[in-house]
Batch of 4 targets.
Target 1
Amino acid sequence: MKKVVGSLAVLMIFPVAVFAQSSQTYSVQEGDTLFGIAEEHDVSVEEVLSENPGIANENVISVNQSIAIPDTDGAAAEESTGQSAEAAPSETAAEPAPDSEVSESEAAFEQEVVRLTNVEREKAGLQPLQSYGDLAEVADAKSEDLRDAGYFAHESPNYGSPFDMMTSFGISYSAAGENIAAGQDTPEAVVNAWMNSEGHRENIMNENFTHIAIGYAEGGEYGTYWTQMFVTR
C-alpha cells in the first residue's frame, strides 16, 4: 500500500492580506503554500527553493515573507515523490463517500492519534494539546475531501488552503498548522510517520499550539486518509 505524508504551518497574529508581486519577488499572503506559489508562477518547488536558500523548510513560510520567483517560462509542476507535502496520487475516480457520520472505530482511531501525539509532546516536556471538537469537523471534512476528490495536497480544490477551510468553518486562531498522511493502517503507524519527518514533527512539537483535531477517512486510492490540525487559541 502506498503511504505519503505532508505538513504545513502558518503563524499569524492578526489576519493580514498583503499582496505584492513582480517578475522577481512575491509577498506571502495568509493561506499561501510554497507549492501554490510555485504553481501560480508556473515553476517547480525545487526552482523556488533554489532561488531562496534561506527557506530551511518548504512546509513553513510566513505571511509577508518575500520570496524570489525564478524567471522560468512554463516550468513543470513538481512530481509526486511519495514523501512531499505536495505529493499527488494519480488521477483516478474517487470511491463513493460512505455515511458522513464518523463511525465508532474511526472516532477511536482519531482519539488514539491525539493520545499518541501528546505522548510525544510530553516526552519533550511540552504541554499536551487539548482536543477541539469544532476543529475535528474540519479535519474530518479534509480527510473525506482528500479521498473523494482524489488528491493529496494541503490546497483543496473545494476548500482552498487549510487556513481558508478553518475560517469557512468558523474556526478562529492566532496560529495554525496541518499534517496530512495517506496509506497508514493504524494510529501508531501514522504518528510514527509524522514523527520521522522533520516538517511534521515540528508541527507536533510546536510549543505555541494549544489545540488539536484529527480527521480519519477510509477508502479511495490510498485506503486511509489522515488529517491532523493544530491551532493556537
Target 2
Amino acid sequence: MHLGIELLTLAPLTLIAPAYVELFLSAGKHVISTSFGKDEYACSVVLVPHSRVAATGRKCLFLNHQRPASLHQAGPTEIVDVANFVSGREGFHLFISSSMSLTSAQLARDFYLNIVTEKGSEIITCDQKMIEHTGNGRLVIHMGSLVEKSCLNIADTTLTNN
C-alpha cells in the first residue's frame, strides 16, 4: 500500500514567518522515515480555507512573498510505501510538529486530512478524541484502522467508477 497525507485548513490561517509544520507517520514503534514532510514558510502568509498547510513525504520551503494570498498553499504529498508497516497494526499515528501553538480542539475544529493513494484520495475529519496534545506545538493523531478503511473506500470508489 502506498499513501500520503495532507493537512488542510478549514478556516483562513495566518502563518507568521518563520513558520513550519512537520508531519510523519509511525506504525507501532516504527517511524516511517520516508513519510517525513516539512513545510517552512520564510515569509508570512494567509492561507485561504481548504488550502494545504503541509504534507507527508517531501520538504518545501516557501520564499515567494509576492504571490497573491489565494495562491499560497503547500505542495501535494508524495506517496510512500507503507505496506510493511500498516498491515495488521493497531498503532498507526500521524505526528505533527509546528511553530503554531495548536491545541487538539483547534486541530479537530480548524483542520482536516486528505489521505492520498495511487487510486485516489479521501477527505477525513479528526475527532478530538483521536488527537493527543504532547506539548510545545506537537500533536499525535491516533489513526488506528482509519487509514486502512480510507484506502479500502478509495479502492471501492475506483472499482465502482470503472
Target 3
Amino acid sequence: MGFNGHRGVSFYEYKLERVMKRLGVSTYTFNWDRWGCFVDFYYQGEHYRFEHSVEKARAKGLNLRNGSETFIEVVLTLEDLARIVERGIYGLETWVSGIKYHSVSADELPECFKMLGFSEIPAGPEGVRRRYELLAREVPANGKDSEEKLRHLKKAAEQAINYFKENESNIL
C-alpha cells in the first residue's frame, strides 16, 4: 500500500482538495463505497474520471481492503500527477487525455446493465456481481418462470462482466 494507514480518510479528502487546487481544478466530485471509488473532475471544459476498486487492485497484486483505501490510492495518484505537471513535464491534459469520462445516457446504456436494474454503468464487475446476487435471491424459488428469469439474469450479468473485460484499457 502506498499510503499511511494511521491517517484517516478525512486527511485524504483534505489532501484531494489541495491537489485539485494545485492542478487548477475547481469543479470535482468524489465518492467511495465498500468496494471502490471515483474522482470526477472538469479540466479545460473536459470531464475526467479516475476510478479504482478493490477488485482492480487485487488483479494487480495489491492488497487493498476497502473502497476508502482505493480512494486514498487515487488521491496519491492525482498528487503524483500534480508534481509532474508542476515540474513542467507537459500539462495535465496530456497525462489524462486517455481517461476522459463519457457518461452514458439511458439510451446508450447497454441492455445487459438495464436488465440488471442499473441506470448507469457501475464502477466495476464487483458491482455487477453484487447486483446479480441480490436480484437472484429475489426470484421465487418455485415460481413458474423462475428458471427463465434466473437464466436471463445470469446471461445479463455475464455480458456486463464481459463489458468490463473488453473496456479494461480505459480503467485506472
Target 4
Amino acid sequence: MFELVSFLVMFYLGMKTFFFNKKHILMMLLSLEMLSLLIMSMIIFILSIYNYDSMMIVYFIIILVCEAVIGLVLLTLIVRSHGSDYIKSFSMLLC
C-alpha cells in the first residue's frame, strides 16, 4: 500500500513540475523523464507481484532511452538555432 501512495505522490510531483515549469525546455524534458521512470518502476512493481517475465522491462527501457535521445537531439537543435532553451524566445510557427 505504501508503494502505491509513493507512486501517486511522485506522479503528482512530476505532473506539477511539467505543467508549472514551462520556462525551459530542459525542465520539461526532465519532468517527462521522471514520469517515464515512475511508469517503469510501477511496471516492475506490478510484474514482481505477479511473477511475470522481465523482458517487457527491457523493451520499456529501450523505448525510454530512445525517447531521451530524441529529446536531447531536439533540445540541441533548438539551442543551436535559437540561442537558448527558453520557450518564449522562439515561435513554434517559425520552426
